[in-house]
Description:
- The protein is of the alpha+beta class.
- It has helices spanning 2-13, 189-195, 209-212, 225-231, 255-267, 292-295, 322-327, 346-358, and strands at 52-53, 60-61, 66-68, 80-86, 109-119, 124-136, 139-147, 154-156, 166-173, 179-186, 197-198, 201-202, 215-218, 221-224.
- It is globular, with a radius of gyration of 22 Å.
- Residues 1-31 have low confidence and may be disordered.
Amino acid sequence: MRKIYLLYLFCFLGLFSCKNDEKIESVETESSFVNFNIDAVPYAKLSTYMFFTGELKNLQPNTKVIPYEPASSLFTDYALKKRFIWMPGNVKANYDADDKILNFPVGSVLIKNFYYNTVQPGNTTKILETRLMIKKSTGWIFAEYLWNDAQTEAELVTGANFASGSSKNITFKKDNGDIITTDYRIPSETECLACHKLDNKPIPIGMKPQNLNGTYNYPNGIKNQLQKFVDEGYLQSFPSNIVSTVNYKDTSKPLDIRLRSYLDINCAHCHQENARCDYRAIRLSFTQTANLTKMGVCVMADEPLGSSLEKIITPGNPAKSVMHFRLNSVNENNRMPLLGRTIVHDEGVQLLNQWISSLNQTCP
């Protein structure tokens, strides 16, 4: 009886997996009981990792599963996001540069949950998907998990059976009261790679020091996110003079800094060297867009859309700016970004409109 009792105790504590569908090893980091075997992931079920405690839908992080939030968020059809990071013990990430992804060790996991809290009718909360990026010895891999309607589990769909991705019809209410119905796009692995690609290798997007050098309200108090990573043993160190992006919604910040921050998180991962839109004329990384030419001001578009839409940015005239046209389009042949949205981000378009209208130079 004592042996049986101890076995049940170990199962309860998470020291061993008592599930038949996964062969896993538990990685203990201080008091963390996250289940993670680098050779067995991705698991078939999100719950197997034990990233969260209690009811899965509450997304209550386990010990050493650290929440984070970039200064500005990538727009995904107004979906809200809860992001977390977990790393195995005795390894740390390293700072390379303000605008370079933190150099993460093997075993690092980035966890991103997409949900709405105004699903109609009734303004209910519904999690649609959880995306993992896992750092293996061969590089980063994607793992896409779809939540069931009961919100009790999320199942792995990455692989050949999900090669074309899928869509989920959803009706939700925006902050301004508008009711929106759309076919929310759940990306395939190929679609994930299209944006998360540099030098033809998968990489994260938002985990740059310039995006994380801000505070977060943790359960034990407000703290700088990078300092939190240091304190948790997840980051070696970081400089005190990081040139950082801002929350593009923060109207107390300069208009140009807000727009540059918006373009950095939404567009720069494709519009950079050796990325998907390398061939295009503009470079939209926050570190480069202090140069208006990099932003496309007075620059002829790679694909002009008629005599009134020749320049990427026509100062003072949003209606004659290709960037404004593409951001305001839902047509798959014209819209930017190409992936990740099916509807127009009204606030993003308005921000771009204000910035273009504020420019008063004359193009040669």
